Amino acid sequence: MSEAALARPLAAAGGRLWILPPLLVLTGLFFYPLSLIATQALTGDGTTVSLDHFAAVFRSGLFLGALWHTAWIAVAASAGCLMLGFAIALVLSFVPFPGAKEIARFIDTFIALPTFLAALAFTFIYGSAGVVNGALVELFGFETPPVDFLYSPWGVILAEITVYTPFVLRPLMAAFSLIEASQIEVASSLGARAPRIVRQIILPAAMPALLAGGSLCLLLTVNEFGIVLFIGAKGVITLPLLVYDKAIQEFDYTAACVIAVINVALSLSLYLVYRAVIARVGGRNAGVV
What is the pLDDT of residue 8? Predict the structure, then answer.
């Protein structure tokens, strides 16, 4: 047997060993803690596996309310990200003006910022003692701050739209860059107006990017914690915030673990949907999301 032929199986055997370090790291940092959470959820403080803790959580009105808030806030914020991202991408891509590229890069920087920063900025602007309310009270003599939407679900939704719109904008900008200008020019020369061009040419080309960006926003908003906690909207409790309340404030670790497992299952389901959308999109826009 030649040395080259002998080296191939040895290299293959050695290559398989390289999986051990990342596997050990994942086991220590992810799989083991997750198994402890799942064990606590299934057994509580005992040793017998039971679904009674899950049944108790599902009967809880607080949990059902948190599930409802999580779902509808995520859907509303994702829809807002899609509409705002589509509108901004249209302007930046098809309405040329000086500084368009710089504005697009500036919006991209929002991806690198912590999410609570948007909540902090909104508090300074729209909070009870914020700039807007301070100016209105001083000008018109209101006894109470007239702008109070921030401490409601709409404040959370608006902050999440501000933070996560770039996740829609980036794939849309890439999709729009693939549209040939000649298509729009021909349609325009044949008498098609802007709304029809958007509906029949631009929107079909943007649909894969919209699906991918929208599903990613949905995944991220379902797990959003910092914005909800920082704004402190009255009566707005989502699943991540409920886990925090149960574990840190009430010391009910079993209920916290049960809710955490449900939240993880929901997140994994949305992630599978996101990956399915990416796979469906294929090579057209998947590489830019």
Answer: 57
Identify the domain containing residue 11 by its residue range: 1-50
Tokens of 174: 């890439």
Predicted pLDDT of residue 218: 92
CA distance 89 to 176: 8
Cβ(40)–Cβ(257) under 8 Å?
yes
**Measured between alpha carbons, how far is 25 from 175 in angstroms, rounded to an integer?**
37
* CA–CA distances in Å: residue 133 to residues 141, 148, 231: 11, 9, 16
Average pLDDT per consecutive 10 residues, the chain (289 residues; last block may be shorter): 54 66 81 86 83 91 93 95 92 81 79 80 85 86 82 90 90 85 77 80 86 90 89 85 90 92 91 82 48
Distances (CA, A) of 203 to 175, 209, 212: 10, 10, 14
Number of domains the chain is built from: 2
pTM (two decimals): 0.81
Q: Tell which residue, 187, 183, 205, has the closest CA to residue 196.
A: 187
Nearest to 204 by CA among 92, 283, 284, 84: 284
Report the distance separating Cα 43 and Cα 258, nearest Å. 10
Same domain for 14 and 132, yes or no, is no
